[in-house]
Automatic annotation (TrEMBL):
<keyword id="KW-0032">Aminotransferase</keyword>
<dbReference type="InterPro" id="IPR000653">
    <property type="entry name" value="DegT/StrS_aminotransferase"/>
</dbReference>
<dbReference type="GO" id="GO:0008483">
    <property type="term" value="F:transaminase activity"/>
</dbReference>
<dbReference type="InterPro" id="IPR015422">
    <property type="entry name" value="PyrdxlP-dep_Trfase_small"/>
</dbReference>
<protein>
    <submittedName>
        <fullName>DegT/DnrJ/EryC1/StrS family aminotransferase</fullName>
        <ecNumber>2.6.1.-</ecNumber>
    </submittedName>
</protein>
<keyword id="KW-0808">Transferase</keyword>
<comment type="similarity">
    <text>Belongs to the DegT/DnrJ/EryC1 family.</text>
</comment>
<dbReference type="InterPro" id="IPR015424">
    <property type="entry name" value="PyrdxlP-dep_Trfase"/>
</dbReference>
<keyword id="KW-0663">Pyridoxal phosphate</keyword>
<dbReference type="Pfam" id="PF01041">
    <property type="entry name" value="DegT_DnrJ_EryC1"/>
</dbReference>
<dbReference type="InterPro" id="IPR015421">
    <property type="entry name" value="PyrdxlP-dep_Trfase_major"/>
</dbReference>
């Protein structure tokens, strides 16, 4: 049997407009952070975080790192994060000198469970940093209530959630800062990059920290880094920002199709009032998950991903012996299926047929 062409689990969409934008910047002769970055910050703020100030940096990880530093997180502090996420979430906390403390997830949303967060709060806890995983907003109301009870700050890892919202309020507007990643596989890209939504003193500090600690040249106020975004990357990001609304609608439409036609796997649930932007369309498999991944790829030419097979607390970099049952269960069961905007209706049908066939065979 010949396998049909592979359907990838993610596909960055780069077109003529992105190429023209890069060319425009290259021809200007000015490539480092400049007017394109300033325009991108302004446009991103208006399009995605209801006008809240935005500061562009060279990666999502840098955005988390600088946001945490700007909010005053450092040695002696504990920041509660999920273990079921990409390593950048906890890495950025650890790199400030603070300690990431892992809490469990709510099995429905795959995001931090407020009750589990409350159970790990100590006298050293300074903040809670949920991840809006897969593009679904974390339980911001529940987490804000825990933060309020214990006098903690709230930060948002919105790396995967451009345009997600809860009750009409955009992610990236709930915490002292929010971070959006612009890595190529995210819902929009600048090549590499990150955007931090914040305001007032936090915004001022993120701007300082990304540029050696200076606002005016050679007048360094604090010790900082070079985490600037280039105008080349910003020019790509500006084009992508304009394309994002249509892509998000297509992701949601693709997800609705999968919801309606998949059998034998547990499809995603959207909390009441939540806007899910389907960075990933993640199902649970009640059987041999790894065998399903392999069968989808080898027998049906359907790419899929496992986000994430190893919880952060069990990575060699943290190596903690913790009891996080929902995190462990999700890490064993999840599989993310193609949902990206370049899927054709034939592709979607192939995904459905493949998953249903493999699930029926008892993966
Ligand atoms: C992608 C991602 C990051 C890091 O973003 P980069 O731009 O790759 O540095 C952080 N947290 C989560 C949840 C992510 O998915």
């Amino acid at each position: 049997m010949t396998t049909p062409p592979m359907i990838p689990v993610a596909k960055p969409l780069i077109g003529d407009d992105e190429r023209a934008a890069v060319d425009r910047v290259l021809r200007s002769g000015m490539m480092a952070q400049g007017p394109e970055v300033a325009a991108f910050e302004q446009e991103f703020a208006e399009a995605l975080v209801q006008g809240r100030e935005c500061v562009a940096v060279n990666s999502g990880t840098s955005g988390l790192h600088l946001g945490l530093l700007a909010a005053g997180i450092g040695p002696g502090d504990e920041v509660v994060v999920p273990s079921f996420t990409f390593a950048a979430t906890a890495n950025s906390v650890a790199l400030t000198g603070a300690t990431p403390v892992f809490a469990d997830i709510d099995p429905v949303s795959f995001c931090l469970d407020p009750a589990s967060v409350e159970a790990v709060v100590t006298g050293r806890t300074a903040a809670i940093m949920p991840v809006h995983l897969y593009g679904h907003p974390a339980d911001v109301a529940g987490l804000a209530a825990v933060a309020e009870r214990h006098g903690l700050a709230l930060f948002e890892d919105a790396a995967q959630a451009h345009g997600a919202a809860q009750d009409g309020r955009a992610v990236g507007t709930f915490g002292a800062f929010g971070m959006f990643s612009l890595y190529p596989t995210k819902n929009m890209t600048s090549g590499e990059g990150g955007m931090v939504s914040c305001d007032g003193e936090v915004a001022r500090k993120v701007r300082l920290l990304r540029n050696q600690g200076m606002a005016a040249q050679y007048q360094n106020e604090v010790v900082g880094l070079n985490n600037r975004m280039t105008d080349i990357h910003a020019a790509i990001g500006r084009v992508q920002l304009g394309r994002l609304p249509a892509w998000t609608t297509t992701r949601q439409r693709n997800a609705a199709y999968l919801d309606a036609h998949l059998e034998g796997v547990a499809t995603p649930t959207v909390r009441a009032g939540a806007t899910h932007v389907y960075h990933q369309y993640t199902v649970r498999v009640d059987g041999d998950r790894d065998r399903m991944v392999q069968a989808l790829r080898e027998e049906h030419g359907v790419g899929s991903g496992v986000y994430y097979p190893v919880p952060n607390h069990r990575l060699a970099s943290f190596a903690l012996d913790l009891d996080l049952p929902e995190t462990e269960k999700a890490a064993r069961e999840v599989i993310s299926l193609p949902v990206h905007p370049s899927l054709t209706s034939d592709d979607l049908d192939r995904v459905v047929q493949a998953v249903n066939t493999v699930a029926r065979a008892g993966a």
